[in-house]
Amino acid sequence: MAPDNSASDSGGVPRPGDTLQRNRQAFTAQSAGFSSAGDTYADADDLAWMLAELPLSGADRALDVATGTGELARALAPRVATVVGIDATEAMLEQGRRFVAQHGIENVHCEHGIVEALPFESESFDVVASRYAFHHFADPKPVLAEMARVCKPGGHLLIVDIVIPDEAMRGSYDYYEWLCDPSHVRCLGFEELRALVGLFGFDVTSARARAIDESVLEWMEFSLTPDANRAEILGALRDELAGGARTGLAPFERDGALYFEQRDAAVVGRRKG
Prior knowledge:
Elements: H1 19-30, H2 44-51, E1 61-65, H3 71-76, E2 82-87, H4 90-102, E3 108-112, E4 125-131, H5 140-150, E5 151-163, H6 170-180, H7 190-199, E6 202-215, H8 216-223, H9 227-241, E7 252-254, E8 257-271
Parallel strand pairs: 1-2, 1-4, 2-3, 4-5
Antiparallel strand pairs: 5-8, 6-8, 7-8
C-alpha cells in the first residue's frame, strides 16, 4: 500500500478492527522485551526532561494513564505521596508490578482499566499524566476528557508523546509507524496537542519539543515488526537516502547504521477552576 500524504484523518494508515484489541495484542507481545530494570525507553535523563516543567508536591496524588510497565509512575513516586498507574494490557501491568516490587517502591499501585472510562471519582487526582500513549488511541478526545474529569481544579496534566515532525508528510509518517507497529494509530501535531489540552479546561503552562535520533533496527526489533514490513520500511528508507520519495522519517546513516529522527513533545496544563 502506497502512503497517502493528504490531510485526511486516516493519514493513509489502514486501521480495520478494534483498536483496543490490537493494542493489547501488540503490547502483550512487546512486554517481554522491557529491560529487567524496567527502564526501556525511559532512562533518567529522558524522565528528567519529561518532568522538568511539571509542578509536583510531596502531598500529591498522581495518575499515570496508559502506564504500560510504569516507567513514568516510578519516576513520579519519589516526588508525590502516591501514584496509580492504569493500563488496559495485563501483561504490561504484570511487568510493572514486578518492577515496583524489585525496587521496593511502596506508593505505586498498578490497576487494570480502560482509559476512555477511568474508574475513579471526579477531581480525585492532583496530577494526571500520560507518556508515549496518545498515538495509540483511536480518538484522543475521550481520553483527554476523562483525564480532565479526574483532575482536581488547580491540578496539573502532563502529556508526553511522539508528534508528527512534518505535517506535509503526515500520511507517509503514520504509514511507516503503522508498518513498524500495528498498534500505532495517528501522531498528533505539536500545536494540535497543545490546542487539545487547552480545549479540555487546562491553561497550557509549558509546551516543549525535542528531536531524538532513533535506530531503525532497534525500533523494529522492539516492535516485533514482521519481516515483510521490515523489508518495506528498509527499502523505502534506503530509496529516500538515494534521492527517492520522502517517507517523513528523515532517515540518515551513522557509522554504517540507519537512523531516523523522532520528535517528542511534553505539554503541561493547569486545570482551571
